[in-house]
Structures are given as C-alpha cells and as structure tokens.
C-alpha cells in the first residue's frame, strides 16, 4: 500500500495535526521503547498527558514484539478494543477511547484507519505484511528528541522546586524557634499557615511566595533579638559564674552542693527568676522556653527520633533517657509528681548534658527535687551556665 491515510474513518473531522503526522519525515535513529517511555513519564505534565493516558500507551507499546523502535520496520499495532482493554488492566472501553484520543491530540500516536474503520493487518499469500491499520507508534520515534528535552527541563524544575522547598523548611524551623525564644505569640498564625502549606503539593510560584513570607518573618524576629545580642558581654560574665553548680557537685550527697547552688542562684538573679512550672498537670508548660532547653542540652537530641516540638514531647523523651542514665522509675515518678512533668523533663535534660560529671544520677535527681520543694532550685541558672560553656 503506497498511500497513507490522512483523515480518520467515519464522521470525525480531519485536523491539521493528523495531516502533519502523516507526512514523510527523515529517518530517525533507533530508540529503546521502554527508555523512551520512562522519559515520557518524566515529561508528561509538560507534554499535556496524564498518567492514565500513559497507561494506555504502555499497553500499545507492549504489542510491538521488538524492544527498539526502528525506522523502516512495522510500527503500527492493531489490537481490538477488547484486547487493548484487557492489556490495560480491564479499563472500560469508553475510558479507553478517551485516553487514545488524548494520545492522538498530544502527537504521541497517529491513527491509520482502514477503509471500513477496523484495525487489522493485510498479508500476502506468502504471509508478508502488506498493510496494517491501527495506531502508528512512529510518532514516538519522531518526537524522541522533544521528549528528552522536555524530560530534562522537568527534572531541572523539580530539582529547583526541591531546593526552594528545603529552604522554606529551614526558614520555618528558624522562625518557629526564634518565636519561641522571644515568646512572640503573634507569629503563631503565620507559622501554622506555613506548616499547613508545606503539607500540600505546592507549585513553584507558591513555594517562592512562601519563602518570601518566611524570610520576612525571620528577619523581623532577628531584628527583635538585636538588643539582647548587644548585651551579650554582661550576660557572658553572669553565665561564666553559673557554670559552678554542677561542676563542683560531683557528689549529690556531699556538703558543697548547697553552697554552690546558693552562689549560682545569686549570680543568676539578674538574668531570670527561678524557673517553676505553670502547672503540675500533665502537659503543663514550664516558664523557660522549650527552645532554650534544647539549645542548652543538645545531647538530648541524639536520643530523639524527631526534635521535640512541645513540652509533652520533651517529657516523653526524658522518660526514655532517664532509664539510660540509671534513674530508677520510683525516683522519676516522685520527680514528676513533686516538680511537674515539664520541670522534671528539663532537669533530666540538664543532667544528661553534664552526665559525665554526676556520680549518682538517681541520688542527684532526688536532691534536686528536695531543693525544688524548698524553693532553692534555679534551673534557669544551670541552663544559662550550659549556654555560657557553649559560647566559651
């Protein structure tokens, strides 16, 4: 058969795309059909086809016996709708026709309709293929360079989007911790909105807008921290004095502990009042910011699957590490009952950070509980002392 049909069978009108697809094109290099299909999946959005359209194309490609698409070889497949539906995992024929039409519109498949609209192959008496009517897959071969270019562009866009999204996550983390450090309750709504957005599938423009908003929020919070940074010299002097409570307190039962604690309390008086929980109920928040505890006690995070986001998370993590530290459950229950879950968890975090200097963790925690009951525990002093050591 010399003539290639330019128009579809039946009442369907001809289109310019159909005519263009029937034109003779120069020979193309051979392409692995499954490699090309994989690149097409990467570029499908840019080429305007859906994943279900590609599912039908996969079924069509499976009817070609050879793995490579080569010019000069038969590239027309002619399965019936029933056979194609079965190969497409039982897709209904009405749905099948819709996806076939989408592939034709995208220029990935061309129709080669027979005089009666049926799909079949005409063969000679010797069994040689004379003509085939069905779906011509040579269009894939012709568009292979375009598919590869679009796939590369899609990969570049995806990489840029991942980088921008990672930037948004880091900015959100910085904004959250700075807001907690400052006690900036007005930042709660923007931060919650940003967390909600990051749980969705965002486009490049949406991610860029989110990065701009979070950058502005972080800059604003950092500007509010500037006055505190200017006073760092005096604070540093106070912090150096605060290192003594746990350094000298190698023996929790020894007689030097009370004197060291009193000295630390006096040194920290100008920084912050003694830390007490707002509530002894489960989940009650301590007066000291959670972010400050985590900054002063980074050793605690090595035992965490994820960074604690609330005092409840910190209490659960403290419950886990106190066993590693050799603190008996009876002492831990007593500490939670008398100090409150938040203050007890923060105390264990401080102890873990200085664990190498404490001979008897259980006895040390019990002594701190007694000191709290007497109103002489200044946990903020210990925390600022740890921060001062980090700065040194």
Automatic annotation (TrEMBL):
Compositionally biased, Basic and acidic residues: which spans? 237-258
The residues covered by the Plasmid replication protein C N-terminal domain are 15-180
Transmembrane ranges, per UniProt, are none
List, for all copies, the residue spans of the domain called Plasmid replication protein C C-terminal. Answer: 289-387
- In this chain, the stretch annotated as Disordered covers 228-267
What InterPro entries does this protein map onto?
ArsR-like_HTH, RepABC_RepC, RepC_C, RepC_N, WH-like_DNA-bd_sf, WH_DNA-bd_sf
Q: According to its UniProt record, what is one Pfam family this protein matches?
A: RP-C
Which Gene3D superfamilies does the record cross-reference, listed alphabetically?
Answer: Winged helix-like DNA-binding domain superfamily/Winged helix DNA-binding domain
Q: NCBIfam families in the record, alphabetically?
A: RepABC_RepC (NF040974)
Protein name per UniProt:
Plasmid replication protein RepC
- Source species of the chain: Rubellimicrobium aerolatum
From which lineage does this chain's organism come? Answer: Bacteria, Pseudomonadati, Pseudomonadota, Alphaproteobacteria, Rhodobacterales
């Amino acid at each position: 058969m010399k003539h290639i049909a330019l128009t579809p069978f039946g009442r369907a009108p001809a289109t310019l795309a159909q005519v263009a697809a029937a034109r003779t094109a120069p020979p193309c290099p051979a392409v692995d059909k499954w490699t090309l299909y994989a690149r097409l999946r990467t570029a499908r959005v840019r080429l305007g086809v859906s994943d279900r359209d590609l599912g039908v194309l996969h079924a069509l490609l499976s009817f070609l016996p050879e793995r490579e698409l080569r010019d000069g070889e038969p590239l027309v497949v002619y399965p019936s709708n029933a056979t194609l539906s079965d190969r497409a995992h039982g897709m209904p024929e009405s749905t099948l026709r819709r996806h076939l039409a989408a592939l034709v519109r995208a220029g990935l498949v061309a129709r080669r309709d027979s005089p009666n609209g049926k799909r079949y192959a005409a063969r000679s008496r010797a069994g040689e293929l004379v003509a085939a009517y069905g779906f011509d897959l040579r269009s894939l071969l012709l568009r292979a360079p375009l598919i590869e270019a679009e796939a590369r562009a899609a990969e570049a866009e995806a990489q840029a989007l991942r980088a921008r999204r990672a930037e948004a996550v880091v900015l959100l983390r910085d904004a959250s911790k700075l807001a907690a450090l400052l006690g900036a309750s007005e930042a709660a709504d923007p931060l919650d909105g940003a967390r909600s957005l990051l749980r969705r599938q965002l486009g490049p423009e949406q991610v860029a807008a989110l990065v701009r908003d979070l950058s502005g929020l972080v800059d604003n919070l950092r500007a509010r921290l500037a006055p505190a940074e200017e006073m760092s010299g005096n604070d540093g002097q106070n912090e150096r004095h605060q290192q003594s409570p746990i350094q000298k307190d190698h023996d929790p039962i020894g007689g030097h502990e009370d004197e060291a604690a009193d000295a630390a309390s006096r040194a920290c008086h100008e920084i912050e009042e003694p830390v007490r929980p707002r509530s002894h109920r489960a989940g009650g928040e301590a007066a000291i910011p959670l972010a400050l505890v985590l900054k002063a006690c980074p050793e605690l995070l090595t035992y965490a699957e994820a960074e604690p986001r609330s005092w409840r998370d910190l209490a659960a993590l403290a419950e886990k590490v106190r066993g590693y530290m050799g603190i008996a459950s009876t002492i831990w229950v007593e500490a939670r009952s008398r100090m409150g879950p938040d203050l007890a968890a923060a105390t264990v975090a401080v102890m873990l950070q200085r664990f190498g200097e404490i001979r008897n963790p259980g006895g040390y925690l019990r002594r701190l509980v007694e000191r709290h009951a007497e109103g002489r525990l200044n946990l903020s002093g210990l925390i600022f002392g740890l921060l001062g050591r980090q700065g040194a």
